[in-house]
Amino acid sequence: MLGRPAFQCDRELRCQLSSASIRVVSDISEGFEQKTDRHFAKYLYDSRGGSREVRTQLLVALGRRYISATEQTRVCGIYEEIAKMLTGLIRHLEREDRKHRR
Fold this sequence. Notes:
This protein has a single domain (about 5-95), classed as de novo design (two linked rop proteins) (Up-down Bundle). The protein is built from four helices and no strands. It has helices at about 5-10, 10-30, 35-65, 70-95. The radius of gyration is 16 Å and the shape is elongated.
């Protein structure tokens, strides 16, 4: 996907897409180290926001014809599934609300 010449020339969009996708996993990792469930959930909200940002950037890439509709649908589907899993984990953590996770 990112190997296409037109996409290679759009450095700003590539950087935004890369940053957002890295943020998804980084926020999960950083949140896991938090002491309480609610603090962890806050980072998961941020991660879910990163997932939305990735999907938005992919729509921009589709609009600029850097990727095909099939590619956009496939990758967005993955990030939508990640967002659903994050939502489920957030709900669980907010119900449990353990004050000392470790």
